[in-house]
Design goal:
923 residues, alpha+beta, Ubiquitin-like (UB roll), four-stranded mixed beta sheet, 14 helices, disordered N terminus
């Protein structure tokens, strides 16, 4: 045993000695034996980037964060791939590696393909627009893929089937532009079968004669079978049965038999009327169309009865029967269900002005202004009975927004005969306030700066929904300061006496700077054009508001169909901005044909007036030379005028951010008193004052040469000394447009003011000064009812030739006289000669004629104004008056108007009624 222990100790000492010797040898001699370089990590010697088998341009190479000279790291390469994917530009990314110590990396990128155009071939008689609308898997301007194309073909076949084209054979062809990664898709329908309806039969309990049902259908025997038309017929039959009170009738195509050899199809339509549902209303007249939709689907009967009662009560209360009572029940007889509503309307009351009791915090006028007037009720005497019962909830909500969470409002009436005075009893309760408002965790900004961003304030009312708004406002504030990753939470604790403590906990993110701005997608547009629109710069904080403003600026250029700005993180405090643009179509051509009369229509029978064709042609080429400029040629030919205009529009003037227009034109026009031939050039510059298009400054330098001919007035009346007349002028205009819709406004206002100075430059004879101001106001006084008013004033002095004077009269100014007939006349020919002063007012009340035709409107108007030979002759008593009414139909380009106007100041013996037909609003 002792010997075994000694042997073990000897072996252990020997093992320790040998291990120590090996360690000393390696630490002493290994460095001399092996080169130090073998311990250095591999180095990236070269990085190349291929896009769709071509060398990438400089912008794409900048998307790859791995650079030459970096240490080789799989983690860093993986991160660079993720960053490239985040751009959304590529569908596939691969990286090839060559070498062990000196490494070469090749990034192989495959662009996402974009569908540029979808073109259909084959004459099917179906509009291409309809074909495109019914393909959802493939859209112009959206990503292209082979799978998407297959799905789109399936959708197209399904749509063609619905339109009566069976078993279509569709051939597809794609044409890819390797420079832009855009794909044109060609779809050709090679063949399709069509069938003729041989027989239409009916099955089930029709209740009506088959022949009568067939007459109601558009699908007829002997006609082409179109499934979509059959579907419309089924809907039409359902409406017929619904009119017979079978509101739940089930109608469908039960069977289709195809005879492919002869090209016939026979269909069987099954009709199951189900129960007959009738509605009876006793005690008052109520439109049944108000109640019928409730019972079209299978519903809980108790809900249907209560829903019907609510609709009846609302309807009757609007008529002034504020104490209406409705009871309802259901009666059944075999296959018949009768819904009965018994109404006791009570007395009809005239509703007086409302009053309030229990007010302490608010006054009566405050509640009226803040709650009642804001609900489009212009005066309280006309409030309807139904609205009275809706106001308690609205008043309660108003109180809650001011801290009165327990406010209660009850409605009572003070009755005097047939008059009812609404009285709202208000229990305000205690006002909840924020006693303590604190912010924790903020180090980058002061408490005062952050409080300025929120709705809540210390010692002010507490309203819980405002807290969430405050959180969003604080988070947006940090984003707009270039800080990402900020988290904001809020804790609310109630203290004594309706007081609250609100504490915002902020976990601030990191300041992010823009390392690089990469621009892709521009093939024609010059890079410096895009750079001019950037308000966020390299090396600056990535302020989110500036990034959004940059996007808006690029979109306003009007040359891109899509603008994307993506933030690509590089590290905890740096990111790249990727601006990806998609250029839109550059060429546009349009042709318009219309009708016009030689003079404005003077009778109801428009065919008794001289009618001729008029035409307009337009050719536009945008993004000229890649400078975001646009050149256009517009021509117009009509009975009374001919015009040709060449226009060059560009977003900058000598590098300044001013949108400019260079125009050259030729025109001929016939007027009441003269005709003229004019040619000229102008340079205009537009500057937005608000960042939007609602507030503009416009400056114009113009030179025009006008030749008068076919004069209908004496030369002494036209105020000219030279023929032709040349004018050079400088004008400035201010435009403020706050209308909700420039073509069909219902609310808002418009203001413009222009000053023109014509000075004898360039051997021109002009020497005059003109100003023109216009103001429009639109008020929505009731839902659907608009009050519009327009005021115009023009003043001039100096030698103003007849073609530069103010004229009035006609459908767009004063509707009591014909075009240009307002104001001074030539004493010999009695033709209008215009004037140096104009004042004009237009007032219109526009209202719906039928609730089911929202675009068909009625109008009552009143015009007042006149044209004066000189400004010092302007007098209120000299203004003429016109009254009228009309019908108008609202279109996307403005209302189509038919109006009758009466001149209230027409001389004895002259016609006082004029008819006007035109499109557009009164200017």
């Amino acid at each position: 045993m002792l010997k075994s222990i000694r042997d073990f100790n000897l072996k252990f000492r020997l093992f320790v000695f040998v291990s120590l010797f090996i360690f000393l040898y390696l630490s002493t001699f290994a460095k001399k034996t092996f080169p130090q370089d073998l311990y250095q990590p591999p180095i990236i010697e070269e990085v190349s980037v291929m896009v769709d088998n071509n060398q990438a341009d400089s912008e794409i190479r900048r998307l790859i964060s791995v650079k030459k000279g970096d240490s080789f790291s799989l983690k860093k390469i993986t991160e660079s791939i993720k960053q490239a994917y985040k751009t959304g530009l590529f569908s596939d990314i691969q990286v090839l590696k060559e070498g062990e110590q000196n490494i070469s990396l090749t990034y192989i990128l495959k662009r996402k393909l974009i569908t540029q155009a979808i073109i259909f071939r084959g004459n099917l008689g179906v509009p291409q627009k309809k074909l495109k609308e019914n393909m959802y898997a493939l859209r112009e301007g959206e990503p292209f893929s082979e799978d998407g194309l297959k799905h789109a073909v399936g959708e197209l076949k399904e749509y063609l089937y619905r339109e009566g084209y069976f078993n279509p054979e569709i051939k597809t062809l794609t044409d890819r532009n390797s420079q832009t990664s855009q794909v044109n898709v060609f779809l050709e329908v090679l063949s399709a079968e069509k069938f003729i309806v041989h027989k239409i039969n009916f099955d089930g309990s029709m209740l009506l004669a088959e022949e009568k049902l067939r007459k109601k259908m558009l699908t007829r025997e002997g006609k082409i079978y179109i499934p979509s038309l059959v579907a419309q017929d089924i809907d039409r039959l359902k409406e017929i049965y619904a009119s017979m009170d079978y509101r739940r009738a089930e109608i469908n195509v039960k069977e289709k038999k195809f005879d492919k050899e002869n090209g016939f199809v026979s269909i069987i339509i099954e009709i199951i009327p189900n129960e007959k549902i009738e509605i009876a209303v006793n005690g008052a007249k109520v439109p049944l169309n108000l109640l019928k939709p409730i019972w079209e689907a299978r519903i809980f009967e108790e809900w249907g009865l209560s829903e019907g009662e609510a609709k009846i009560i609302n309807y009757i209360r609007k008529k002034g029967f504020i104490f209406v009572n409705v009871t309802s029940h259901i009666e059944r007889d075999e296959n018949r269900t009768l819904i009965v509503h018994d109404i006791i309307p009570g007395i009809k009351y005239k509703i007086l002005n409302i009053s309030f009791k229990g007010l302490q915090y608010f006054t009566s006028s405050q509640i009226k202004n803040e709650v009642i007037f804001r609900t489009s009720i212009p005066f309280l005497g006309k409030i309807n009975g139904n609205k009275l019962f809706e106001l308690p909830k609205e008043i309660e909500f108003f109180y809650k927004t001011h801290g009165f969470s327990s406010a209660k409002v009850d409605l009572n009436f003070e009755i005097k005969g047939n008059k009812a005075k609404p009285i709202y009893f208000i229990e305000e309760g205690n006002q909840e306030k924020i006693k303590i408002l604190s912010i924790e965790g903020a180090h980058l900004f002061s408490k005062e700066e952050l409080i300025d961003q929120i709705y809540s304030f210390q010692d002010k009312p507490f309203f819980q929904p405002n807290i969430q708004k405050d959180i969003e406002s604080l988070e947006n504030f940090y984003l707009n300061q270039g800080i990402r990753g900020t988290k904001v939470n809020a804790s609310v604790k109630k203290m004594d006496n309706s007081l609250f403590r609100v504490n915002f906990q902020i976990k601030e993110g990191s300041k992010i700077k823009v390392e690089d701005i990469i621009i892709t997608g521009n093939k024609v547009t010059r890079k410096n054009v895009i750079l001019k629109e950037l308000v966020v710069k390299k090396g600056e904080l990535a302020r989110y508001d500036l990034i959004k403003e940059t996007k808006r600026n690029l979109e306003k250029l009007g040359i891109f169909s899509e603008v994307r700005i993506d933030e690509i993180p590089l590290s905890s405090n740096k990111e790249n901005l990727l601006i990806n643009v998609r250029e839109g179509e550059r060429n546009y051509a349009g042709l318009g044909i219309g009708l016009e009369t030689k003079n404005e229509p003077r009778s109801f029978y428009i065919w008794n007036n001289v009618i001729r064709l008029r035409g307009t042609g337009e050719i536009i080429h945008s993004n000229l030379f890649g400078l975001a400029a646009q050149i256009s040629l517009v021509g117009q030919v009509s009975l009374k005028e001919r015009r040709g205009v060449v226009s060059l529009e560009q977003p900058y003037l000598f590098g300044l951010p001013l949108r400019t227009f260079l125009n050259a034109w030729l025109e001929k026009e016939e007027r009441k008193s003269y005709s003229f031939d004019r040619r000229g050039v102008s340079l205009s510059a537009v500057k937005s004052l608000s960042g939007e298009e609602d507030m503009l400054l416009l400056f114009t330098l113009r030179f025009a040469r006008t030749t008068l001919y076919d004069l209908q007035v004496s030369e002494s009346e036209i105020d000219r000394q030279f023929s032709p007349f040349s004018a050079s002028s400088l004008s400035g205009s201010f435009i403020l447009d706050r209308r909700n819709d420039p073509f069909n406004p219902e609310k808002g206002y418009f203001f413009s003011s222009a000053l023109e100075w014509a000075y004898p430059l360039f051997k021109s004879e002009s020497d005059y000064l003109k100003s023109f101001t216009k103001y429009q106001q639109f008020l929505s006084i009731f839902p659907g009812i608009t009050l519009g008013s327009t005021a115009r004033m023009g003043l001039g002095q100096g030698m103003i030739p007849i073609h530069e004077r103010f004229f009035g009269g006609g459908s767009n100014s004063f509707r009591g006289v014909e075009f240009d007939e307002l104001g001074p006349k030539d004493p010999l020919s009695l033709k209008p000669i215009g004037g140096k002063a104009l004042i004009l007012f237009n007032f219109e009340l526009i209202f719906p004629l039928f609730s089911s035709y929202k675009n068909l409107l009625g109008a009552i108007f009143y015009d007042k104004g006149n044209v004066f030979a000189k400004g010092n002759q302007m007098k209120w008593g000299a203004l003429e008056d016109a009254l009228g009414l009309g019908i108008r139909y609202r279109t996307p380009l403005g209302p189509f108007r038919f109006e009758l106007g009466w001149n209230l100041d027409a001389p004895e013996g002259e016609s006082k009624v004029l008819a006007f037909i035109t499109i557009g609003n009164v200017f």
